[in-house]
Amino acid sequence: MEALLKEEHYTPHLEGKPNMLVCKNLKKVYPTPKGEYVVLDDLQLKIRQGEFVSIIGHSGCGKSTLLTMIAGLNPISGGNIQVDGAPIIGAGPDRAVVFQSPSLLPWLTALENVMIGVKQVFPKATKAEKIEICKYYLDKVGLGNDFDKRATSLSQGMQQRVGIARAFALKPKILLLDEPFGMLDSLTRGELQDVLLEIWQKEKITAVAITHDVDESIFLADRVIMMTSGPHAKIGDELFIPFKRPRNRRDVLEHPEYYDYRGYLIDFLNH
Ligand SMILES: Nc1ncnc2c1ncn2[C@@H]1O[C@H](COP(=O)(O)OP(=O)(O)OP(=O)(O)O)[C@@H](O)[C@H]1O
């Protein structure tokens, strides 16, 4: 079991890669009618370029708080966050977020929804180039025949595909995912995990995904980070997942050590 915790068993694609994300002494305090509530305290986290990290922890421990702080959408109370060596100042297209609900603009088509971000990130590109970028990512998520469908006519799974395309089309340095498949049925969830991993593998983006699903956390990640329960939550433990990439669900599930990894995470959550 000890072997599971050692970095030397880490996946080879991260060898020699610098840190892309560093959270140092991170603190978050929310004011409440009963006084200050310290959600995160002295949290330390380093994520390497191209690494896929899953975050698990009990409901309310502060996972979304951490993710929205990294996204620059939630002010930091103490400590700092650096992306690619520079402290973050607010939100920016270098950090794309995929939320549980994609919140597409309903009156726009799939392509137009992706285009909103593309226009901001590639202002100098021609219209044709921008359309090409949108179509490329929509095609990658399996919506090659649905560019012109309005968001309202897309199923929940298709809308989340647009959400993923929209995030990748920004060409971010870090992809932040907050329970991205939480609202989907298990079949669609599995399909979208595969889609996500396929594009991530190709784009070599650093990714951080919050999930409540232990199997999903293992299947997606190079490392699973376990947060302690709040208040004053921090990183409690981490597990390196060395299964070879590209990953195949059946291979992962049939791996002789799979249930050791799963059991380790479930034990953490039960204590
Ligand atoms: N704006 C806010 N003001 C006050 N308290 C807040 C605010 N946002 C979140 N909290 C509290 O901070 C704690 C952490 O919330 P957060 O949503 O980050 O947890 P989480 O781990 O993502 O939860 P879940 O797994 O249920 O989504 C919770 O106790 C929550 O009630």
From TrEMBL:
<dbReference type="Pfam" id="PF00005">
    <property type="entry name" value="ABC_tran"/>
</dbReference>
<keyword id="KW-0547">Nucleotide-binding</keyword>
<dbReference type="GO" id="GO:0016887">
    <property type="term" value="F:ATP hydrolysis activity"/>
</dbReference>
<feature type="domain" description="ABC transporter">
    <location>
        <begin position="21"/>
        <end position="254"/>
    </location>
</feature>
<dbReference type="InterPro" id="IPR005890">
    <property type="entry name" value="NO3_transporter_ATP-bd-like"/>
</dbReference>
<dbReference type="InterPro" id="IPR003593">
    <property type="entry name" value="AAA+_ATPase"/>
</dbReference>
<dbReference type="InterPro" id="IPR017871">
    <property type="entry name" value="ABC_transporter-like_CS"/>
</dbReference>
<protein>
    <submittedName>
        <fullName>ABC transporter ATP-binding protein</fullName>
    </submittedName>
</protein>
<keyword id="KW-0067">ATP-binding</keyword>
<keyword id="KW-0472">Membrane</keyword>
<keyword id="KW-1003">Cell membrane</keyword>
<dbReference type="GO" id="GO:0005886">
    <property type="term" value="C:plasma membrane"/>
</dbReference>
<dbReference type="GO" id="GO:0015112">
    <property type="term" value="F:nitrate transmembrane transporter activity"/>
</dbReference>
<keyword id="KW-0813">Transport</keyword>
<dbReference type="GO" id="GO:0005524">
    <property type="term" value="F:ATP binding"/>
</dbReference>
<dbReference type="InterPro" id="IPR050166">
    <property type="entry name" value="ABC_transporter_ATP-bind"/>
</dbReference>
<dbReference type="InterPro" id="IPR003439">
    <property type="entry name" value="ABC_transporter-like_ATP-bd"/>
</dbReference>
